Amino acid sequence: MKMPEAEGLLLADKAFLALREQLTSGVLRAGQFVSMPDLVKTIGLPLAPVREAVKRAESAALVRVLPKRGVAVMEATPDLVRDCFHLRTILDQEGAREWVRRGIGARLGELRERHQKVLDEARIGITPSLQREAMAVDWALHAALADALHNESVSEIYARNRDRLSVIQHSRPLLPDRIVPAMEEHLAILDAIAGADEQLAAEEVRRHFRQTLRWWGIIV
Question: Secondary structure of 49-79 in the HEC alphabet?
């Protein structure tokens, strides 16, 4: 029996959110192949909405449909890694400048405290819970920089790029040897913003980008 259109749209939305969660949480990993029957089983919804969800994920460049075979999750190629982090850096630089221009860098004080806490604990020893907190704090800064722009179009672009970065980062999680330097680089960005130094804030964002790519084995 054919589903009412409204119900079909609702199921398609649910299916896409479920598929997106599997992709961004690392359940489905970069480069992995999965059949449509397996997706239907893991998502727990009928074939039609799952197929629609896959189409939406493909339009967001998260997966690639292989006709009569299944779905391939995006691969974390060096070019894609560079492109996604570069896009984030462009938004981060302008966001950092905007925080300075508006003179409200003090609002980032709590975020700075979270970074310092992670850094202090990481220098003592790395635990799985600290790794998770470091990742959450890492994302919190980048989100704050994007939010500073107060631009819905930018927010949409940022969200799509964040989904792709989430898939990429699950192919190589934030390891202990990266946590300390990453927190130090973030703190340098926050300190430049707090010091109302627009140029330095943008430079620190760019330095963080270069160091991140080096950690991925990509030289710029």
Answer: HHHHHHHHHHHCCCEEEECCCEEEECCCCHH
Q: What is the pLDDT along the chain (220 residues), one digit of tens a residue?
A: 444 544 556 899 999 999 999 999 999 999 999 999 999 999 999 999 999 999 999 999 999 999 889 999 999 999 999 999 999 999 999 999 999 999 877 789 999 999 999 999 999 999 999 999 999 999 999 999 999 999 999 999 999 999 999 999 988 766 778 999 999 999 999 999 999 999 999 999 999 999 999 999 997 6
Q: What is the DSSP letter of 172?
A: S
Contact 82, 220 (CB under 8 A): yes
CATH code of 5-73, in short, is 1.10.10.10
Domain positions in the chain are 5-73, 78-215
Identify the CATH homologous superfamily for domain 78-215. GntR ligand-binding domain-like (1.20.120.530)
Q: What's the token pair of residue 93?
A: 């630089």
Distance of CA 14 to the CA centre of its chain: 21
How far is Cα 156 from Cα 70, in angstroms, rounded to an integer?
28
- Same CATH topology for 5-73 and 78-215? no
Q: What angle do CA 84, 90, 179 make, to 5 degrees?
A: 65
SS3 201: helix
Give 201's contacts (C-beta < 8 A, 6+ positions apart). Answer: 93, 96, 97, 99, 100, 189, 192, 193
